[in-house]
Model the fold of this input.
Amino acid sequence: MKRKITPINHERVLKEGDFVVSKTDTKGRITYCNEIFLELSGYQEKELLGAQHNIIRHPDMPRGVFYFLWQTIAQGNECFAYVKNMAKDGSYYWVFANVTPDFDERGQINGYFSVRRRPKKEAVALMTDIYAAMLAEEKRVGTKDAINASLGLLTSKLDELNTSYEEFILSL
Done:
């Protein structure tokens, strides 16, 4: 059973040059995490190994973002995203994530690698606003239509900017 954590308004900041690394199986269960991940998240390795990666999901993150990420990597593509995570004590930390599929010798996906680094402050400010709008849209339409509604909002924003998701994220 997942422990209920109350978010607090305290930011943990990844040091410049540090990388948060984890690996999951195809179901999103953590199979590896580096020391920086442990330090930043506040969890012990035994608490994370075998746990769903969403153990660190912050409630400020729209469901549509993770749906998009999982769809992208399940198709064998890498995905870049700005993500607000929640530590065990309820504090938060932002990362710029690169998630890539891990292929076996037959070319089948057998898991995923995620390498996260310190994000640019300007990018976090912009993504905070976009994610707040996506989350508000998810709440407005309700659980059943939440993902489609928030992804629709994101798509509209990208269309306004005449850019793709990847071009937009990598330009920040």
User: Anything to note?
Assistant: The first helix runs from residue 35 to 41. The two ends are 37 Å apart (CA to CA).
